[in-house]
């Protein structure tokens, strides 16, 4: 009995199809970092005089949604506060301004799973999403300002803070 399609052809076609599906799925999930800047703190001390950090990002994409996040790296020592509240503001090229508040929490949260608590301890990194879906209406320089709310104290054992803007897939 003769086959209409030889097995070799079906195997090659199947392999090619799987490769194309994998390639398409990889491109779909790719996030595009539009802006990223890190501030390193001397002697792992976020000094009180440095409590306000300013960044300038040149944004040209006025169509896609973006995520804005702050990533804090710290050491394993417990000299820092239990939580650090921050506010973040975005000033557009036309002068329009928006603000949000968030907090980095260094104590264990009883609502978190034990796996999440362990991961936080091991990584010494926390990322807070400041804007989960932000649209930039004007092309140009956006000014970001992150303000650490605290009394007149330094925050020890804080190594760096990174602000990142990521273009989200549509």
Entry keywords:
alpha+beta
Descriptive notes:
The strands form three sheets. A four-stranded antiparallel sheet has the order 1-10-4-7. The radius of gyration is 23 Å and the shape is globular. Strand 5 and strand 6 form a beta hairpin. It has one domain: Jelly Rolls (Sandwich), CATH 2.60.120. Helix content is 19%, strand content 46%. The N and C termini lie far apart (50 Å). About 4% of the residues have low confidence. The longest helix is centred in the N-terminal third of the chain and has 22 residues. It is built from two helices and ten strands. With 170 residues, the chain is an alpha+beta fold.
Quick rundown:
This protein is α+β, with helices and mostly antiparallel strands.
Question: What's the layout of helices and strands?
Answer:
Layout: H1 7-28, E1 32-40, E2 45-46, E3 52-59, E4 66-74, E5 83-91, E6 97-105, H2 114-123, E7 125-134, E8 140-149, E9 155-156, E10 158-167
Antiparallel strand pairs: 1-10, 2-9, 3-8, 4-7, 4-10, 5-6, 5-8
Q: Indicate the CATH architecture.
A: Sandwich
- The top level CATH class name: Mainly Beta
Strand share of the residues? over 45%
Number of helices: 2
Based on secondary structure, the structural category is alpha+beta
Global shape = globular
The share of residues in helices is 10-25%
Instruction: Give a count of the beta strands, DSSP E runs of length 2 or more.
Output: 10
What's the number of structural domains? 1
Uncertain spans: 25-30
How would you write the strand order of the largest sheet?
1-10-4-7
Tell me the span between the first and last alpha carbons.
50 Å
Largest sheet: 4 strands, antiparallel
Q: How do the SSEs run, as a string of H and E?
A: HEEEEEEHEEEE
- What is the CATH topology assignment? Jelly Rolls
**Overall pLDDT level:** 81
Radius of gyration: 23 Å
